[in-house]
Amino acid sequence: MTAGASFFSKERIVAGPGFNRWLVPPAALAIHLCIGMAYGFSVFWLPLSKSLGITHSIACTPDSGIFQAMFTTSCDWKVSALSVTFEIFIAVLGISAALWGGWLEHAGPRKAGAIAAACWGGGMFLGGIGAMMHQLWLIWLGCGVIGGVGQGLGYISPVSTLIKWFPDRRGMATGMAIMGYGGGASIGAPLAVMLMKHFSSATSVGVAQTLMVMGCIYFFAMMMGAIGYRIPPNGWKPEGWNPPSPEASKAMVTHKHVHLDKAWKTRQFWLIWAVLCLNVTAGIGVLSMASPMLQEVFGGKLVGLQVSFNDLTPDQKVQIAAVAAGFAGLLSLFNSLGRFFWASISDWIGRKNTYFTFFILGMVLYASAPSLGHTGSVALFVLAFCVILTMYGGGFSTVPAYLADMFGTQMVGAIHGRLLTAWSTAGIAGPVLINYVREFQLSHGVQRADAYDITMYILVGLLLLGLVSNALIRPVETHHHMTDEELEAERKVSHDVAAEDHVIAAVQAKDITLPVILAWLAVGIPFIWGVSQTLIKASVLFR
């Protein structure tokens, strides 16, 4: 350890003798389960749209635009204006991860995680102040921009560290952490509903107080995760494990390293960028419209009535909305579980074959969705999209290991950060695509139950492009690899510690210690509670 190194510096978190590597995934999960609330933010939109009227929305004048909405204190916001917050923090997530991914490799995961905690927790607190003052621009700034920076840094903070701790199971390790992002809403959304109910009154819908309280909770939980981060010294490997030789490896796994400055200029980077973007565009488009899609496709069949959506009474629409909410929750659950499942599978069949599976199986399921909808098979329709969402989530968790295979582990966190601009692109393109096609269909007289058919076939086309992009990926040319001198120079800049200077005797997975049990319980209990809440809501689909 360097003399005078700060508590958050990279030199202070090199693991010591006897450290158990299984303490690192819970630290990563603590951060990802918090920032994963991004997927659950929609629970705030309807209450916020009545923050002045309390029981009803106070409409603005017809000529009011988005600029007036940012500053008005005399009328309520529209849901469409509030939902821009989601688009902002997803866009900022990708941008901040791309901008500061290289800095993270040098500063270390603890410092990045602490800043992420301050930005996400503090951003939500500031958003709560914005809700209290009825200033939309403050919500956008707090939850959207500042929170988005926290999202980006928090998301990529554990990637490089986990891959280095688990060289024998790269996919599984990153899958464990990134699973938390997919499952964060299953904890945060019901918690937010409970808090809003507690804080609501005759003069408040309870959103402002809820955002502030959750901001404090998330700050504390994420700081605990950041403090729990440890990194292995260079050259460390699990006891008894030796990396396979290039000749013996069936996957396209390099044993060299590519610098960030070169990696993002290679053909392989942009092909993987396209693979992730196309997979996410298809999945996030469906996820954004899950609830209205199920309601409009099946209508009264969701509650045992043989009537279309347009013929339902207001009370019946409330009933099917509850069923559709269960569908959305179930998709989120499968999104989370798929992140761990598919990333773990990729350790066995390789990353390229895993993405081949995503695209081929995805095309079959998307193409069959219209037929399943027309035949009225709710269970099969739901099952098809649950499988689709596992592959959507699996795309996120498999890609860090894919990048490590292609570019090495030295700067994989920074490369992953830059690749996440694909997510920002898809986060806008997917919902816009599915909404535009739906509106176009409806405006041309297509029935609501049929308005998603063309969309599904368009998504099949996107997946076909992804399949082709994946097929074109080849190992990185050797002239892109860092020389031994360049690698050593980069490690000095990154304050990496060599194994011979700081030898550790890591406890293996079979050694379950009390600290490991407590760490996993700390993240496992909230996650299991969130899953149980999701399953309770989703049970209405199968009554």
Word description of this protein:
Helix 9 (170-199) packs across helix 21 (514-538), helix 12 (267-288) crosses helix 18 and helix 14 runs parallel beside helix 16 (378-407). This protein has helices at residues 24-35, 45-48, 66-71, 79-82, 84-107, 109-133, 136-156, 159-165, 170-199, 207-228, 260-263, 267-288, 290-298, 314-349, 351-374, 378-407, 412-419, 421-443, 453-471, 484-493, 514-538. With 543 residues, the protein is an all-alpha fold. The N and C termini lie far apart (60 Å). The longest helix is centred in the middle third of the chain and has 36 residues, at 314-349.
Task: Detail the topology: elements first, then pairings.
Layout: H1 24-35, H2 45-48, H3 66-71, H4 79-82, H5 84-107, H6 109-133, H7 136-156, H8 159-165, H9 170-199, H10 207-228, H11 260-263, H12 267-288, H13 290-298, H14 314-349, H15 351-374, H16 378-407, H17 412-419, H18 421-443, H19 453-471, H20 484-493, H21 514-538
Helix pairs in contact: 1-9, 1-10, 1-21, 5-7, 5-17, 5-18, 6-7, 6-10, 8-9, 9-10, 9-14, 9-16, 9-21, 12-16, 12-18, 12-19, 13-14, 14-15, 14-16, 14-21, 15-16, 15-19, 16-17
Query: Could you give the distance between the termini?
Result: 60 Å
* Largest sheet properties: none
Low-confidence spans: pLDDT under 50, at least 5 residues? 504-509
Helix count equals 21
Which H/E pattern describes the elements?
A: HHHHHHHHHHHHHHHHHHHHH
The radius of gyration computed from the alpha-carbon positions, rounded to a whole number of angstroms, is 24 Å
* Count of DSSP strands: 0
CATH topology of the largest domain: Growth Hormone, Chain: A
CATH superfamily of the largest domain, by name, is MFS general substrate transporter like domains
Tell me roughly what share of residues is in helical segments.
55-70%
CATH class of the largest domain: Mainly Alpha
> What structural class is derived from the secondary structure elements?
mainly alpha
CATH architecture identity of the largest domain: Up-down Bundle
* Net shape: globular
Total domains: 2
Beta percentage is: under 5%
What is the residue-averaged pLDDT? Answer: 88
